[in-house]
Amino acid sequence: MTRILKKTKTKINDKIVLTTTLVFAVVCAVVVGGAVLYATVSVSTSSSNTVLVSELSTFYPLSVLAGAQDAAVFGINIRPQNSRSQNVILRSVILNVNNSHLTTLSGAIFKLVNSQGAILASASPAGANRNKTVSFSNLNVPISQAGNDFTIKASLLPTDSGAFALHIPDRNVKVTINDRRATVSAQSVYLGPIVIRRESNFGIGGAPQFADEMIEAGIEITRQWIDWDKIEPANNSYDWTEMDATIRAYNDAGIEVLGYFIGMPVWARDTSNPRCVIDERKMGDFCVPKNWADYEDFARDVARRYNGTQYICGVTGDQYCGVMKYIGVWNEVQLFSSMTAEEYAPFLTKGYAAIKQGNPNAKVSIGSFLDPYEFSYSGAFIDVIFRDYSNYFDITDFHVYRKEAGASETSRYIKERMDNFGIDKPMWITETATNLATIPCNLDWYDDIAIDVVKRYSRAFAEGVDKVFWFAFIVNPVKQENAGGIACGGPSNFNTGFLGWSLKGSTTFHPRPAYTAYKTMTSKLAGFSEVVKLSDTGYRFKVDDLSTTSVGNTQYNESYVYVLWCDSGTCSIPSELSAVPSAVWVTDYLGNRQLKTPNQITLTNSPIFVETYLFY
User: Fold this and answer.
1) How far apart are CA 141 and CA 89, in angstroms?
2) pLDDT higher for 353 or 579?
3) Which residues contact 54 (CB under 8 A, 6 or more apart)?
């Protein structure tokens, strides 16, 4: 079943060439961020009866999930247009795969599939690492008068996750026809339902109604409540409507989802425990289920429903449910529910087992450790989980809200405790932000928050954190932003730490400078493969693998972005950057870009991005 995706706002210029009486047009489509980009490519015939399709005007990047199997990534539709179009034969299809953000693609297999699902040909990428070729040759597939759809699917090994681009190179789709006066045309092929993308690093607590604005900022993964109380308000009575719509909205935008459980419904609670207080605090209350099987059933159902293969949603049962490959087992239970590690353990162990039953490929995160530097009791909780329950989670998940340097300190602490217990798992910061205690009566704080976005992410990545989530995307405005906003002088309640604001019920997003800083950061660092800490205020990100180039006796093959600032006094740029003989691009945290020589760079408290190469 093919799911129709919404059309992107991006426009691609059509290229029509009518130089002889026979014209062959192909409309090719690729999924980018969940939307479909498509363009018509037309060529004329030569003296032979072989029609050659020219290349699209640009590469369109695709992105893949590690271990994706038979994900639809490209489509071609061929259709005869008149009575002379008899005995049309598809001879071959040759694609280029540009994998600038992948190391090898060694495990990739591409398949050409017809509309009945039959595999016509399979091929692995061959050739140079950055520019491989996929060839489907000697096809000899008859094209019916009604036309034929062909889909190209990709399967990858878990080690091959990353971004790549796919296009048809010049003159490499060959269709043979019987009469030069015949015409052959094509229509776009809408691909889906699987949204494929490279591995994500930049996350946030999102807002599905502003998915387009999230994508524009470079956000790749979001954190989303899985509200048990709302989904199953009565035992075995489910309402998935809102959750399905949210997951599909993110999927269609190309944003991955980390869901996490909140809100045990009243019917499921063991209220005999006096600590189980029923109120509206979705995160809180120490309650255990009357029947643990109810909790396990719910966890299993969630994982199964969003495992990427289910077509059981909607009124008629024929809609695609969506993909949520990451699931967190509750949130900050130390704080909201005052649980000890031992009290939390059955939620973790039973939840982990049920999630894996529903989707063996799902990744389970811990219930968000509190920062032990801010909550002294968190250290003992962390040690018990690491010591006794490390087999029941795949991702170590924690929160950091202290000053931006805390992102470094807490990440090192978590890594040291993992090393102490022999644990090797990904580290994610799923909440971080810079917040003010009270709301100022001006907007002078705008730039402080924006600056800290870049600093927190750079520090965390340098300590080995894989993904970082800013606390949240959207909030109600303060009065200095809108007359209907929250008055100054009162408690902030995290209001100042959001990337933008919107009035309740409005579909208009108002970005703060923090949003611009986030967007600038992702535009420079997205897809990075390595980060090196040069100093406490200097970090080098490897962002691309370039073909080795010789300059005299010197070779260089690596593109880097430096993130630099100076917290106090006078700071020097890294010596390796000082040695660069030419001008480099320097971009401030708000996206203003200038060409400078290294000796013209001055470091301040505001971070800058410096783009250059390293020479060897």
Assistant:
1) 5
2) 353
3) 15, 17, 41, 42, 43, 170, 171
